Amino acid sequence: MTVTDLVTDPSLYAALETSAHAREHCMSMLDRLYRNPSSSSVEDSQAELFKEQKILHAYLSQMRGLNRRAALDVRETKQITAEARQEVDRLHLQLQNLYYEQRHLRGEIAACDSYDEHELMIARINHEHAEREALEQERQGLLKKKQGLIADNKKRKDDLANLDQDLEKFIDAAKPIQKTFEKEY
């Protein structure tokens, strides 16, 4: 299996091609250095080596740019993958909620299907009996409250009637004093 079989992203083919060219260029430079360790003209060999190094540096800078681009692409792909994973998780949770709701509703349907009419009627009668007892207790409480209010009103009415009588007596007792003040001296 070759590297080109493993790499499926077209943008990485350029990086592979550039790295292959840089590798071949390095190998040819090393071969030339090993074959001609002491060349006839040192200046010519250094000039040629300098030219070869420039080409190699160009390949390497191109590789850095492609590597940077690949790293940015990987970061973008990771972001897209994370967003897609979040969406899948959200949809999975929604599906689980729907399954739970479906099981609950099926249980409710089964409970409704298994009702016995006789038991249902007994439950209704028991419920109505409990409601009537509660209402009767409430009625008794209200009657006691009503009787208490009637007794309180009667007492106040009697107090007001006694107040009228006491006021009449007071006015009658004050008449001699009033006559005394009406005299002119």
From TrEMBL:
Keyword Coiled coil annotated: yes
Primary localisation category: nucleus
Xref: InterPro entries: THO_Thoc5
Pfam family, one: FmiP_Thoc5
Subcellular location(s) of the protein: Nucleus
Nucleus is among the record's keywords: yes
UniProt GO MF annotations: mRNA binding
Entry's Gene Ontology BP terms: mRNA export from nucleus
GO cellular component: THO complex part of transcription export complex
Coiled coil stretches, renumbered: 120-152
Keywords attached to this entry: Coiled coil, Nucleus
Family indicated by similarity: Belongs to the THOC5 family.
Name of the protein described by the UniProt record: Uncharacterized protein
